[in-house]
Design goal:
This protein is mainly alpha-helical and about 100 residues long. The protein has helices at about 1-45, 50-70, 75-95.
């Protein structure tokens, strides 16, 4: 009988944890989805050679990645890597050259 009560407590806490993880999973999925959508918009603008739209999309993408990092959805190194690759794509495509000072 004591064992039955013990299992019931474990079960309810496991159900609670499962419910919490499901909510977090859906929230994380939404954040990652917005990041992927912003990345696709940026790449599309770069492929069209539209520098103004690409710059605006790049700024929006950077913001989405920063939000994902701040919320703990993506690791900071992963965010840095993705942002670096997007900036590199922008700079190579539009010939933006940094001057050494």
């Amino acid at each position: 009988m004591a064992e039955e009560k013990k299992n019931a407590v474990r079960k309810s806490s496991a159900e609670k944890r499962h419910a919490q993880s499901e909510v977090r999973r859906l929230r994380n999925k939404a954040v990652k989805s917005t990041c992927r959508t912003s990345a696709k918009k940026f790449v599309a603008a770069v492929q069209k050679k539209d520098q103004e739209a690409a710059k605006a999309a790049l700024i929006a993408l950077q913001h989405e990645y920063d939000v994902a990092q701040r919320k703990g959805v993506m690791h900071r190194n992963a965010v840095s890597r993705k942002k670096s690759r997007m900036y590199k794509l922008y700079n190579v495509t539009f010939g933006v050259v940094k001057t050494a000072e």
